[in-house]
Known about the structure:
Blueprint lengths: L1 E3 L10 E3 L2 E3 L10 E2 L3 H16 L4 H15 L5 H8 L5 E2 L4 E2 L3 H5 L5 E2 L5 H14 L4 E3 L3 H10 L4 E3 L4 E3 L13 E5 L5 H13 L5 E3 L14 H4 L4 E6 L5 H6 L6 E5 L11 H8 L7 E2 L5 H29 L1
Parallel strand pairs: 1-3, 7-8, 11-12, 11-13, 13-14, 14-15
Antiparallel strand pairs: 1-4, 2-3, 5-6, 8-10, 9-10
Helix pairs in contact: 1-2, 5-6, 7-11
Amino acid sequence: MSIVFHSNVRQWFFYIDSGQYAVPSAPGRFPEITCKSDAEILYSWLSIRQTIFGRNHRMDERQLRALLQQYREGEISEGEALEKLKYLPYETLGFATLDHHRYLRQGFPEVVFAEGKNTEHLLEITDRILRRHRRLLITRISEDSARTVLQKFPQLYHNPTARILATPIADNECQTAYQLYVMTAGTSDIPVAEEARETLRALQFDPQPLYDVGVAGLHRLAEYLPKLQKAHGIIVVAGMEGALASVIGGAVACPVIAVPTSVGYGASFRGLAALLTMLNSCAAGVTVVNIDNGFGAAFALARMIQAFDTRQQQENQSKGAEV
């Protein structure tokens, strides 16, 4: 059996199919490696995966090592090990193809967008994800669908304002090193802001809400500016003309993610006016996501922080090696 590195595609996936193992690679980066046993294959995959992805996916690595240990000690057969591993890349349900490998690539399982899915499909998808991952995040779920899913999976947490259903995250599981804020211009923007806040929470951050502080009453921001200027990241959610993002972007040094909402009267064009305002912000470096996309804003901010974390870890390891 062998590990083969394919270099003729733009996306790289690890799959197991009839004894063939392919892992993420880059053109010409690794030669073909032939292994004598399944143990060598798994060890090679673990070491190469760490080279490619870094050290950010400890949970899946521990699971793979535990599986390897069980196989080496004879607790499970080769067939049982392969049965557990074959769902690692993806799983086909007929109506959906679940990307279980996403945890290894990005550090979080595939997120489920519930809008447009029937309840039976949501139940099956939820079940399959929870069998293989500790965390789950479902966005844009209706109250009726959430109620049905909760009957089968009562361990999940539901925020009806955010339309989020997720695995609950305890306070002691959240990173406390970063001060993050989710702001809204008005109260009507809160559902989108809650989607962003709950998504960050699912990613194990603890953002603080700061709601209804829009430019129509700019004096309301004064008392919060000292805290905002110490923040590591801010998500600004605003409808109408969307001016709050420029105000915050010009007042702080941290990343600012702007989310236009569809809140407003006729000429707001369901969020297009706010979107165009934010895209044309004169505050340098304001990042803008799609209309009502609180989820996307949260993931963008989390990736910025995780990239910084990875760089810091690499620098610390390099310094340690020099010493």
